[in-house]
Amino acid sequence: MKRLVILGGGESGVGTALLGKAKGYEVFVSDKGKIKNKYKEVLIHNEIEWEDEKHSEAKILNADIVMKSPGIPDKVSIVKQIHENGISVVSEIEFAAKFTNATVVGITGSNGKTTTASLTHHILKQELNVGLAGNIGESFAKQILEKNFENYVLEISSFQLDDIKDFKPQIAVLLNITPDHLDRYNYKFENYIASKFRIAMNQTNDDYFIYDADDEVINNYLKNNPVQSKLLPFSLSKIIENGAYLDKDNIKITIDNNQIIMPTSNLALEGKHNIKNAMAASTVAHLLKIRKQTIRESLENFQGVEHRLEEVLKINKVHYINDSKATNVNATYYALESMNAPTVWIVGGVDKGNNYEELFQFVNEKVKAIICLGVDNEKLFNTFGNMVDIIVETQFMSEAVKIAYKIAEAGDNVLLSPACASFDLFENYEDRGRQFKNAVRNL
């Protein structure tokens, strides 16, 4: 019996444990932190051996295969020891994919993954039997075990791609590449770029690679590192013969001389970046033979993703917008770009080596006040201090929202778009977004 050791007892870890046990592995789950009660109960109920708040080397280093949760970096000592012992380390999507013959759509990129994966799933589920997994919702492994969908849309992070060996989506989508998570890539942008392109690493000429042809980082990498799959670029500025492009206010998608046209006038999601997300999702749908009418209706009635430019409330003619999912500068760039009124901007958190320069034009143009919400706000003060009349700091979400309420006037926006990770003051970006929404509702 092969021994499967799982590092990390969260959603992907527990899902993999269940699938592994069902497929005849001897399974052991080990977590350096505390395993949440809801996951402990599942492990106990399924008689799967586990430990938390420690890693017992004796129980880990006798593994045949290790599934490592994406949050654990390679430089952790137990992971180094596993590698030194020549034990294969894989991610959940690598392990799980071997147990399904489903058509897999894999979506990655620095920004827009969750929105595009959710939108793609929203379109496909109108006509296909399809699951949504990866970096979102119920784990891929658990869905393969319990639901056995014929198709999957997977949102995939670079950390998940770092530990694939044979994983191959039939349709890969690469939305964009901007510097993010460089702390995990020895502060080398080229390492992060290579990591994103692993999504196409095992693709063949029968597979498809959908990507943003306006992204110079992607174009340059493709020139020097061609992929084997069929290319379907999308663009807002170029005319694309095979792929998608914007012609005035219409998205035109051509695949093998079969063209469909989508008006952008009624898209549910606003902003240029969302036209790109819609292009990517529609290209996938067109490839999978979804009817044009279905694609169009789905683009118009899609509700969007929580914590991503989410309209919370309108109070005294002021719009409160939750964009807590903006954990890097590029995401905040899109948020500020889509603001069409004077904006009170709540920003800050754990800075991953951010360069805020690309935001200057919007801050000068649209931002009337900045509220810094982080443990250390010095860099924000130094960067933006002389661009706005009002810049203040706080370490409490409730206070940040009260200050914003005092500053904002009728017609203004109050935007939470932190451009940073949330771990200094919050559990995660969801916690940060929920606290913002609660504070707004309590005004």
From TrEMBL:
It comes from the Bacteria. Gene3D superfamilies: Mur ligase, C-terminal domain, Mur-like, catalytic domain, NAD(P)-binding Rossmann-like Domain. Residues 307-420 form the Mur ligase C-terminal domain. It is an enzyme of class 6 (ligase). InterPro entries: Mur-like_cat_sf, Mur_ligase_C, Mur_ligase_C_dom_sf, Mur_ligase_cen, MurD. Its EC number is 6.3.2.9. Pathway: Cell wall biogenesis; peptidoglycan biosynthesis. It is found in: Cytoplasm. It catalyses: UDP-N-acetyl-alpha-D-muramoyl-L-alanine + D-glutamate + ATP = UDP-N-acetyl-alpha-D-muramoyl-L-alanyl-D-glutamate + ADP + phosphate + H(+). ATP binds at G109, S110, N111, G112, K113, T114, T115. One of its GO terms (molecular function) is ligase activity. Residues 107-285 form the Mur ligase central domain. Keywords: ATP-binding, Cell cycle, Cell division, Cell shape, Cell wall biogenesis/degradation, Cytoplasm, Ligase, Nucleotide-binding, Peptidoglycan synthesis. SUPFAM superfamilies: MurCD N-terminal domain, MurD-like peptide ligases, catalytic domain, MurD-like peptide ligases, peptide-binding domain. Belongs to the MurCDEF family. HAMAP family: MurD. Cell wall formation. Catalyzes the addition of glutamate to the nucleotide precursor UDP-N-acetylmuramoyl-L-alanine (UMA). This is UDP-N-acetylmuramoylalanine--D-glutamate ligase. It comes from Litoribaculum gwangyangense.
